[in-house]
Design goal:
Length: 288
Amino acid sequence: MAMNRKEIQHGSWILMKGTIRFLFMVINNLVAIPSYVLYLIVLQPLKLLNSKLFWHVEGIMFKWLLAMVSSWGWTAGYTVVEWGDDVKAITEDETMVLVNHQATGDVCTLMMCLQDKGTVVCHMMWLMEYVFKFTNFGVVSLIHGDFFIRQFCQTEKNTVEKQKGLQWVIDITIAYHKAKPIDIQTWIIGYREPTITHVHYRIYPIKDVPMESEALTRWLYQRFVEKDELLAHFYETGAFPPPKGQTTATSRAMTLDPLWLFLIQLMGFLSGYMWYNVLQYMYNGLGL
């Protein structure tokens, strides 16, 4: 069937917008990630003198990098509504997160959700497939101290068992509009219409989590059974069920400050420009 004029115009607009967004993302990575690495190289003396301050500074820059990724989805109209327990009260405590990972866009969604949760995003550690070590963000994850794993389920269970200072487990369930997950390509290019992703939180005190291996395995399986029940309810009614003992479920629209996102991006591009000039000066100074 031949496309009409309106469809051609819409397709052309999506193609042009997607190309611009993709080029911006590439440039964004080329300036922000090397800048992060070079700042930390220069700050190595600080690491020797005051390790705590060094990792505090690193955490702030790590949060800024994740904010840049969040901005890609935010500017495409991909927003988040949060349900369930309010996790802001425990974000400064040592916590482990479980999530129903469905697509590559889940990671970007979590990066967005964590931006307004205090300093947790500065200190959090990610567990990811080993192959991600070889992506553009791999060097950042290596420096930050993230974990690359080959057997996720067993590693997840071992992490709960060995984490002595753990205080909470947050069970996160992500639900997408019409059960269509957003992948990283959509997040970057923005070819899907603006949509709301729904994120449900449930908090478990660590004292309620069994530490014995078999009991812990059953407990983890049960969380994913509950996730399926939550998702079934959401896709049937358009809302997550209310917490036990309550009759209504409340939701909270998660917001990001556009000015703050702009300043973060501006900082990244100015840093990239500065480091380009510094490296060029050093190159010329060496007579190479």
